[in-house]
Amino acid sequence: MDIIERAGPANLEAESRVLGVMLSDPLAVECAKTLITADCFFVQSHRHIFEAIVALNERSVPVDTITASEELERMGALEEMGGLPYVFEIASSFVPFENFEHYCRIMAKGTQQRKLVALFKKNLDELVAIPVESPDELFTKLALIEQELRAGIPEQTKFANYNEEVKKIVAEGAEEKRGLLTGNLDLDEHIDLRPGQIMVIYGDSGHKKTTLALNFAVHWAKNNRVVFFSTEQKPGDLTKIAYGIEGKEPTIPDDNLIFSENMPTVEVMVAQIKLLNAKTGLDVVFLDYLQDLGTDNMKNYWDETPRTSYFMHLLKQLAMRENLAIVVVSQMRKRQGESISDNPSVDSLRGSGDVKMASSIILSVVDPIKTGLLTCDGKSTKNMLLIRVKKNRNCLTGNPGEERLIKVQNVPGSRKIEAFSDREEEEEPEHYYQKD
């Protein structure tokens, strides 16, 4: 029995039984061709038999031990594997057809693991051979390794059984739990951010987008682990803003709100987030702001529009796979001679098409004073911010395409943004991120 020189797991019994069924049932051959390839066989002799069976099938020649042996002889492989007796021995390794697909999937899984082992070994040898000068360089290498691994291993489609999902819903109770709430009663009537979703905050320069994002971060960090990446401000500056929001008595638990020391490329940032999530757990990621991100793949994404699309694609994958909520701060497109509006269109977003598609919630933020709007509904707009919900996939109230306007105020003397209306505090409903 010739073992192919490859490292990793293998199930030789599954290989024999799969071939045994293929030698006796034409339907099994067609089924196997959709699930496995010759590369899935760890034993060289098994690979030859599979290739012979597939060759016969594609020429519409009936497959059995005799025709397979003749094909193996034509290939020059019959004698080296032990001749006709070996083929008869394989044919006797039979399983019921209903188990056949399961055995094929065992083999396919083993093949994927062997490929991963080979890629890991190759990249490990390169890491050992080439010294790493800094942590950022290491993260860059890890990000590139991950890209190679994902490219080399096709993803397995996962299916959720409807009845099983219904049982989960019933067990959790009929009332749907909310996602992350901002603590602002007016905003929380219209939005909540769920795991696996992206919320985009956009507006013109100086319209307090970062301040609003930090208000959300401070509120969520009291019960969740939050990391904040900024392309524009250092951790010390962000900490001062957050401190001005929270007040003189910090209530955020240790390590629940962390700021990135520098702004890595998007590939390195994704690698760092995955590492943080694996080591300590992570709930929310903030990125301020999107268009300033760099990439290790600048050759392919030198133009802003495809680059923004690439960034949003990576972030959406990250949110879904790592079960994270992601908040992205984005700039508006600059057009010469264009006046600042108190109700900017979503199309004013830079790279708006892919940003719109990937986002579950989109908020526009406007400082009305900077647009020349001095009063709103008969009230002075001093210290007021206008937040419009441009997209809300969760559709908690009204029509999902209906735009909603929420007026909030920047509390004088602080960085805190709170509800503009004089409403009494209400008990916050239970949500996905509620901690025990």
Overview of this structure, please?
- The strands form 2 sheets. The chain has a 9-stranded mixed beta sheet with strand order 3-2-4-5-1-6-9-10-11, with helices on both faces. The chain has a two-stranded antiparallel ribbon with strand order 7-8.
- With 436 residues, the chain is α/β, with parallel strands linked by helices.
- The two termini are 57 Å apart.
- The longest helix is centred in the N-terminal third of the chain and has 33 residues, at 97-129.
- The model is unreliable at 431-436 (pLDDT under 50).
- Helices cover 44% and strands 13% of the residues.
- It folds into 2 domains: 12-100, DNAb Helicase, Chain A (Orthogonal Bundle); 176-419, P-loop containing nucleotide triphosphate hydrolases (Rossmann fold, 3-Layer(aba) Sandwich).
Short description:
By secondary structure, the protein is of the alpha/beta class. It has helices at residues 12-22, 26-35, 44-58, 65-75, 78-81, 83-91, 97-129, 135-152, 162-172, 185-188, 209-221, 235-246, 266-280, 304-322, 352-358, and strands at 198-203, 226-230, 257-259, 284-288, 325-331, 361-366, 375-376, 379-380, 384-392, 404-410, 417-419.
Secondary structural class: alpha/beta
Q: What's the gyration radius in Å?
A: 29 Å
CATH class of the largest domain, named Alpha Beta
Please state the overall shape, judged from the principal axes of the Cα atoms. Answer: elongated
Number of continuous helical runs:
15
How many domains make up the 3D coordinates? 2
Ends apart, CA distance between termini = 57 Å
Q: State the strand order across the main sheet.
A: 3-2-4-5-1-6-9-10-11
**Helix proportion:** 40-55%
CATH architecture label of the largest domain: 3-Layer(aba) Sandwich
CATH fold label of the largest domain: Rossmann fold
